[in-house]
Amino acid sequence: MKPPPFEYHAPRDLDEALRTLAEVSGKVLAGGQSLIPMLNMRLAAPEHLVDINRVQGLAAMEAERDGVRVGATVRHSRAERFGAHPLLSRALRLVAHPVIRNRGTVVGSLVHADPAAELPAVLAVLGGSVRVARWQGEVRDVRAEEFFVGPMESAVRPGELAVSAYFPALGPRTGAAFEEVARRHGDYALAGVCAVVTFGEDGRVEAARLACIGVGPVPVVVDVTESPADAARIVRDRVEPEGDIHASAAYRRHLVGVLAERAVRNATREAQDRGA
């Protein structure tokens, strides 16, 4: 199928991009790995398409002492190779296939807000944020817990552009893991769990957080600090999965519990190794 007609815009700088978005009602094109199929299947029919790939400054990726900032046009493959954030790199290897990762963007995946996607879970479990800009308006940093509004719905408002995402670094004595199950490699996960576990200087668990995908309208963040050993039960009580042709709700609930237990175990082992 072919996409519906639209007017194409290719701004060269951020001001022009923001001004264009303020003047027209349309969609932003970055990697296009989600948007183009939606256009071809007529699931989206914007009157305008604003291509930000020529905008200078949006391809920056910077490692900071307390985290990593990823620009709006940074590709999955580049972020994976950058290697400044081990959990982000680990999650990116689970995203689709290499040909998709060569074009798809980190920030685009966050804005797309697919409840089965890996990167929203990483941002959520780390407590990261997305920076959003508007023409002649405020630049705001939206925290992960407020950014994902619903399935395929983020907090980016009409006329705004998500210009970067910030992923906080893993602290000392901290380990992370990402576990998921998909029907085939590269498919969206039936369920997945991202875990971050931190030990205190006394050798006890100081913090343990999980973010679950595929079992709710947004990434489901669960704090299991008080009882990491009960992660499976706690997660199963918190999630609200829906059944479809690929898996029943009951199976997804069972699966996410198994993955939660596995993710906590692997993140704990990594935290202990880093603290040794």
Automatic annotation (TrEMBL):
Annotated FAD-binding PCMH-type domain residues: 1-172
Enzyme class: oxidoreductase
InterPro entries: CO_DH_flav_C (IPR005107), CO_DH_flav_C_dom_sf (IPR036683), Diverse_Substr_Oxidored (IPR051312), FAD-bd_PCMH (IPR016166), FAD-bd_PCMH-like_sf (IPR036318), FAD-bd_PCMH_sub1 (IPR016167), FAD-bd_PCMH_sub2 (IPR016169), Mopterin_DH_FAD-bd (IPR002346)
Domain of life of the source: Bacteria
Signal peptide: none
SUPFAM superfamilies: CO dehydrogenase flavoprotein C-terminal domain-like (SSF55447), FAD-binding/transporter-associated domain-like (SSF56176)
Alphabetical keyword list: FAD, Flavoprotein, Oxidoreductase
GO molecular function: anaerobic carbon-monoxide dehydrogenase activity; FAD binding
Enzyme Commission code(s) on record: 1.2.7.4
Keyword set includes Oxidoreductase: yes
Database matches in PANTHER family: XANTHINE DEHYDROGENASE SUBUNIT C-RELATED (PTHR42659)
Protein name, per record: Carbon-monoxide dehydrogenase medium subunit
Provenance organism: Nonomuraea jabiensis
